[in-house]
Design goal:
This protein is mainly β. It has 1 helix and 40 strands. The chain has an 18-stranded parallel beta sheet that branches.
Length: 441
Amino acid sequence: MNPRRAGWLRAVSAVVLLTTGYAGVISSTPAEAAEPPAATTTSTSTSTDQGVALWSDTMMAEAVLSGSGQLVVGAAADFCQAWPTVLVIVDGVEVDHTTIVNTDRYQPYPVGPPIGPGDHRVQVKFDNDLLTSSCDRNAYIGYTALRPVGTSSGTPDAPAPGAAAPEGPAPATGTAGAVAPELAVARPGRGTTGVPAGTVLRVHDGDLHVTTNGAVIDSLDLRGFLVIDADNVTVRRSVIRGRAPGATSSALIAAYGQHHGLVVEDTTLEPTTPSGYIDGIKGRGFTARRLNVSKVVDTAQVFGDDVTIENSWFHDNWFVSPWPQPGNKTHNDSLQIQGGRNIVVRGNVFEGADNAAIQITQDVARSSGIRIVDNWLSGGGCTINLAEKGKGPIDSVIEDNQFGPSRVTDCPIIAPPSSTPTTAGNVYEATGSAAEVRTGA
């Protein structure tokens, strides 16, 4: 047994899944015969130097939280060929997956949409266990908490099992309604996005048109375009390569219809034949998490409601000049929002686009309920560009982002006065100084 794991289980036997001031319950059913079962117990402890170890896909940490706000899971991990992923369930409903990508501290991971008032049963389930002769993939859950939306406390992350405690003030504790630690998302990149290392792919030659509700596409090497025309489709651990598009605008993943519930995760979008006519993922009604998207014009386009893009790496956009567009060049955006409601963009790295990292144009419809939080954003003339296009003010929140360079000096965000976003905590990554909104049409 992993020596670190053995010491951790001793701690688990004495305490439960920890919350910020709430009672919690641990449930676990060990699957690996070599491991002793973890105890099931209850506690109201708020110490953050202990927690729950999850070492198999049948194990689950559980807590009851009272209150409302953004659910945060404090977690750490053991890497083994890939990082561990956990499924988060609230009141019996799956709300999110997230990948744990840090080893030395409990880092806060925001999961799912904000939760309404009441008592909530929160379950965190490990779902991609791996044990080999040389490594062991595990997840460690330090706490769950409800963070008031739009606030942060600046308290430090708690140490992970076996790690030294951080210097400075102790993590905050309290009662229901206490503020969870400030959100800190590990920067996505080559090792944490796209198809996990070691995934065995099967080849599909040609386009794939999905019309069956609930279809699951897993571990596919798709040498064509993917078109979604069904509800609750899941695409995971796949590579989408496209094909030569001719002179017709295409997307590696097209989700244009009236579907809902599309989930694309741990997937690489990179065309075999890059072209000024190929974009990445386009449409409405989808959740994209841990994607690696490159060598396309726009890595993502949204023209409809209910879209979440999180923990993904959009980079190296395909730029073409001359090109039959104004300016005689492709207008590359990491994300273009042409209209829609309930659009969440969090924990991503967007870099390498010539026009904008995030361009909100309202070409199709008015945009509202847009949240852009905890991202690393760079590139473009101005990095985030809001344009009303005659459809009225844009309702947006832009908070806790780190900005890199753009072609226009000191222009992280530009917006007309009537669409000035709600902002807080935006800084320049290089200096830590405040990144302010510039007024412009």
